[in-house]
Amino acid sequence: MIKEHYVNWVVLAGLSVVPLWALAVDEPFTITLATRAVILALAAVGLNIALGIGGLVSLGHAVFFGLGGYAMGILAHHAQTYTALELGPFSIEGTKSMPVIWLTASVTSALAALLIGLLSLRTTGVYFIMITLAFGQMFFFFSISWSAYGGEDGLSIYVRNGFPGMNTLVPFQFFGLCFAALCAALLLHWRLRASPFGLALNAARQVPQRVETVGLNPMRLKLLAFVISGAVTGLAGALFADLNRFVSPTMFSWQLSGELIVLIIIGGVGRLMGPVIGAALFVMLEHLLGGLTDFWHVWLGVILLLIVLFARGGLLGILTGKEGPHV
Amino acid sequence: MSAILIFEQVLNGLQFGVMLFLMAAGLTLIFGVMGLINLAHGSLYMVGAFAAAAVAGYTGSFVLALVAALAAAACAGAIVEMTVIRRLYHAPHLDQVLATFALILIFSEGTRWVFGSFPLFLDIPDYLSGPITLPGGIEYPFYRLTLIGVGIVVALGLWWLTARTRIGIQIRAGENDREMIAALGVDISKLYTIVFALGAALAGFAGALVGAIQSVQVGMGEPVLILAFVVIVIGGIGSIKGAFIGAVLVGLTDTLGGIFLPEVFKLFMEAGAATQTGSALASMAVYILMSIVLIWRPTGLFGVRA
Amino acid sequence: MSDVVLSTRNLKKSFGALKATQDVSIDLRAGEIHAIIGPNGAGKSTLIGQICGGLRSDSGRVYLNNQDISSKSTQERARAGLGRTFQISALAMEDTVLENALLGALGHSGNPWRFWGAASRDTDLRDRAIEALVRVGLDGAAGQTTANLSHGQRRQLEVAVALTLSPKAFVMDEPMAGLGAEGSKEMTGFLDKLRHEAPILLVEHDMDAVFSLADRISVLVYGQVIASGTVDEIRSSPEVREAYLGEEA
Fold it and tell me: Do C77 and C173 share a domain, yes or no?
């Protein structure tokens, strides 16, 4: 039985060593793969705040991923076409500055999470699952029919956005930015979990009636967790769109929402590095199995089923021999 | 914007609605009786459609195709219930979501492996095709009218089943208190398998019927599944009546929204922008309806479980 | 009475055709333990729900220190000074004993919106939590996971969490539930001293505890209070004998 602590550091180290090695042997594709894993991990870390601590089974987190992506796409599109975005009386200039884009992506996603959360947190868990799934579809169909930004075909951004002081076109530098963002999110999760807010939220997941009878409001706790969670996943969406220099309605798809939850469960739900391990494994499986067969999703399904039925704690559960939070 | 066009669209909305009802009824029964949220319902819809298309292609008989759809979906449902679903009844919702999501992956890719990536075609049989003249001189596709009829018949059948038969009573009692009916000697496992297979059959049946007017392809079930969830949220979990009314509301909102919203916008926008905005908003109409219901009645219009 | 801390007036709640509570008016005075007894199905759980906020009454009022809390939510009532314990321990099983107590302390502070510093290192929260644990005798087990506690220890923790709130009145739902002879004796001794801090509305089945602790007893049968008085009065009441104690003896 290995201590969770050690596993965490090993994973983080691995995630930074692999791209360094790829840099040394000049394998930019591996760096891209690692970046993809890191961004998906970031999206899942966001979800894990709501899911792992708050117990909110959000099947619509792709909403925030997509909103982040489109925030980037829309701003960069207006910048690269030298047009301004007309929003009623406001004329917004586009931008290709990552910090501004990231802020916009996070805030937009946070606002969406606030609205969706207000609507869906008023009743029990099953409604929440269905409603979040439904809102994902809503954005999906809306983005398909809104042709101003590509509709079904999506939106291409010709040049990667810029970050002050860095050359983001260099794969390793962009990886570094994404990795830094992931570390920041992990730090946020860690501190949040240990804080009074985290204590209350974690209790709200397990015994909401107790939380009420000590004078706290479980719904408000969960709502805030959902908003923070949405903001982090939104940031990941912006990064993802930047990685691919492309944003499309598929970023809102139910498949993506499902994949985010799958990532977390593979690694270990509710645990700090669960999403990171899950994302790394998922990208590896996608690359290796996907290369072997076109139908690798069948195997993913089988693995997932086995995990749910027999190894509920995910990889971290197996390695540490201890059960994680019961979500 | 003629009255005829509006009437046609109302009928289209009804047709869409009753097909959604077939999906939603199964889902709400399964949740109401077993407390299980089932994402694989869309896969069962797809299985029904594929079975129908395959059998129709082989035998040329639409009736046989429908029977095949019912049988295949019911069997698939029963097998899945006995191997996987059974272990999930007492599991947290997250487990149910993940396990049934895994089933979606297995079913979808499995179907793609067997049938390939290209859509199959299921033809409307001759005796059901072509327009029929309704009172008032309106011409409407006979097949779609049949679907509306079938949907209403199924709704009545389900009502009769739950209100008048022994199994129906067991189902309704099970919805209220699972431990109690076990204590009363009802064979729970068998009841659950039957309910699941029934829900699956309804889904497969819907898949086959709709497969004749749209294409039969992998992934056809999930958009319908998600809309069925919207129906349940609106109608209330566990209520078949809620599922029917919710489904009709959703069907009408989606169809009529697509027609009327662009027209409404044309009143104060120029045609191009109006169609754009209107269609985009129409794509959201159903979800806006869901949101309104949620604000007003968080547990749906006829919600049984609070 | 000026020393009435908690009272209800004509509380009524029906579930469809089932009248769970009908016209229940009871009060709890400072320094006393008022026990509510009655056969199963008498409406005791419903009554607790109506008092503490989990159930919305059809009609009737609830007052805490002369303040009408009838339309307040559960959390508002807790903040107003109601300390509740559950019949089936409502504890965060994955968390440690200390963490459960910290939750109570956090509730008492009224402000969970702190995101950076560790909850276990916040001195105010920690002091209050440990003090409660010491009082019930669980401070030695502070670092243990709640799921690993014995049933008796969980019942103690249940009380400790209520203590952290420094409530104006306790509403306790069968605190003796599942405790053996030893545990019941300890809990009885503890509650006996606790009444001076804040009065206790005690729903209980354990008659030994009730008769040794209660200043007053109210008997609830089919949702109605059929008798209310001192231990001796209730013991000798023929209606109570017939409705309740008779079946037990």
Answer: yes
Domain ranges of chain A: 4-320
Please give the residue of chain A at the shortest CA–CA distance from C80: A215
Q: Are residues C175 and C77 in the same domain?
A: yes
Closest chain A residue to the Cα of C86, Cα to Cα = A210
Domain assignment of residue C13, given as a range = 4-81+167-248
- Find how far residue A167's CA is from the centre of its chain: 24
Number of H helices, E strands in chain B: 11, 2
Please say if the pLDDT value at position C98 is more than 80: yes
Q: Does C14 touch chain A (CB under 8 A)?
A: no
Distances (CA, A) of C11 to C23, C67, C115: 5, 16, 41
Residue B305: strand, helix, or coil: coil
* Contact call for A215 and C75, based on CB within 8 A: yes
C69 in the same domain as C105: no
Which pLDDT score, from 0 to 100, does residue A253 have? 96
How many residues comprise chain B?
Answer: 306
Q: Measured at the alpha carbon of residue B12, what is the angle toward residues B8 and B16, in degrees to the nearest 5? A: 170
- pLDDT tens digit sequence for B176-210: 676 677 777 778 888 899 999 999 999 999 999 99
Q: What angle do CA B35, B157, B200 make, to 5 degrees?
A: 45
What CATH code is carried by the domain that includes residue C72?
3.40.50.300
Cβ separation C108–A211 shorter than 8 A? no
Neighbouring subunits of B (3+ Cβ pairs under 8 A): A
DSSP-derived secondary structure letter, C66: T
Q: Which helix (H) or strand (E) holds A181?
A: helix A171-194
Q: How far is CA A20 from CA A13, A29, A176, A283, A284, in A?
A: 11, 12, 10, 18, 17
3-state secondary structure of C88: coil
**Looking at the structure, do residues C59 and C101 belong to the same domain, yes or no?**
no
Complex ipTM value: 0.93
Residue B159 neighbours by CB distance under 10 Å:
14
Which residues of chain A make contact with B237, given a CB cutoff of 8 A?
Answer: 126-127
C87 in any annotated domain: no
Assigned CATH class of A4-320:
mainly alpha
